[in-house]
Amino acid sequence: MLEKSNESLPLPSSQPYHSYRNKASTKYPKILLGILFLLATVINFSPSFSLNNIKQYGGYVSFVDDENWIDRFEQDDLENWSKCPKQPKPLYPNTIWNLTDKEKSKVISTYQKAVQIPTESFDDNGEADEDPRWKPFFQFQNWLKNTFPLAHATANIEYINTLGILATFEGSDPSLKPLLLMSHYDVVPAPKDTFDRWTYPPFSGYNDETYIWGRGAADDKPLLIAQWEAITNLLENGFKPRRTIILSHGHDEEEVFARRGQGQIAPFLEKRYGKNGLLMVIDEGSGTTDDFYGTPFAIAGMGEKGYMDIVISVATAGGHSSVPPAHSGIGIMSQIVTALEDNPFPTKLTPASPLLTSLQCASEYSSNLPSKYSKLLKKEGPKSYPKLANLISKESLKEKAMVGTTAAVDVIQGGLKVNALPELVNTLINFRIDFTESINSTQTHVNALISKIAKKNTLNYYGFQNENITSLADNEDKYVKVDLLGLPLEPAPRTPQSGGIWELFAGTVKAAIPGPNGTERIVTPYMSTGNTDCKMYYNLTKNVYRFMGSPTEGSFNAHTVDEKFSIDGYLQIIKWIHAIIQNSDAYTGEE
Ligand SMILES: [Zn+2]
């Protein structure tokens, strides 16, 4: 059992963190409350990291305590995030679009047609003008143009990097920051060999009167089409925006590296509007639920874990399998994998996590929050956080993933023949980085664990040094090397949960999507699990909402067989987008 001897936390970062997290020392409010809060958090958070549940791998436990994560945040923010945000009054838009039956069948059939265009994006896609797999994307652009002629005629349409779609509805007052609505029109491929497992063909857009079925029926075409339907209806009714409205659609959101679509559009817009030049960005994400522990909620993605992929290589001498060493390359890689899995990142729940904020909202407003949670929160305050983290981690794997950094060993390659020792073994691992941690702290953990295993096996160790195998010295063909695969991503900045734009967002949600029988819907920050394209926009606004506006219960099987999405959910998105466009246009508060 490892004893933890000081109050600071494991997996520290010694590198500069996101600039928004680096302001701590300059702006500490020196008020008693702040200091008390700091003390409370330091004292009370630390037991969560007692590491009692962490097994040691041959004495290799590697958590190094040399920096406190709390220093990365402003105390004001931590204090704010540890409470449920103030609920604004419902903010009713000028007009509410109650669709007639005729309008409903029209918007539904448009949505079906969008699903029927097979805009599959592949990780190995070539250039837009060379790879024929992009053909359906051109088809989709044309179809969109023909389907929404008024909006296309009104907006300035730009095709960024050929396939990115940017529609700018210029406002009359250029001093107002634009509202940007995002969605992507690529879909995860539906491989031919899975077609027979689909209830309805994946590009049929089949309507069974409750759901629309097909690849992209949930992710992300209902949102995209709802955006065009809502703006079209407003334009048809004479709406002339004061504030510029932008629809922005990437075409490679589902690709591993996603650099062609929003990866190009966001920097383009940053040049046009400047840093922090947008009022608000709304992207795909979570939605509403009428049963958040018994009460109608809207759970808005206002924070997101970080992301990092690594490749671990073990290079050994190889040779004939008649004279094997005690541990072959595969054996050594096994030690590494076992060490990583046996030394998981600590379970934690802190105000940096939107999950804690949503629990506070549930504790305040929900009728059914399990008493084991509510009692702890109410009685013990911050002291309860480590205990809550522990409870949550035991609920399910999904919930466990919400309270700490996860590491998933996903690919392993090594060996060619049964009579030859492998010379090179590679493993790919995916990390989802907790809100209190960073790319650097995750790398520190990896380095500490793996370097010791390399040493034990008398292999040189190169951790995140971007060493080329060919550049390693000749006598160093035996080594363990860890490199990044693709670009890692820090945990997202938290979306502010107070102020005018929060009130605009939450007030509009309450007005456009009330709970059953007109009851009030509580709006809470929540954590988003995927890393969507909105990560490209962090320079353009801090007001990023990953919120689709449909019931979370109405979306099924995104990314897999039998993807489907509820028609009522789709109609709800239209209503929500219709309202937020108008309310953003009317918004006169702080930008
Ligand atoms: Zn998506």
From TrEMBL:
GO terms for molecular function: metal ion binding; metallocarboxypeptidase activity. The keyword tRNA processing does not apply. Zn(2+) 2 binds at residues 184, 219, 283. SUPFAM superfamilies: Bacterial exopeptidase dimerisation domain (SSF55031), Zn-dependent exopeptidases (SSF53187). The chain crosses the membrane at residues 31-49. Residues 303-457 form the Peptidase M20 dimerisation domain. GO terms for biological process: proteolysis involved in protein catabolic process. The keyword Membrane applies. This is Peptidase M20 dimerisation domain-containing protein.
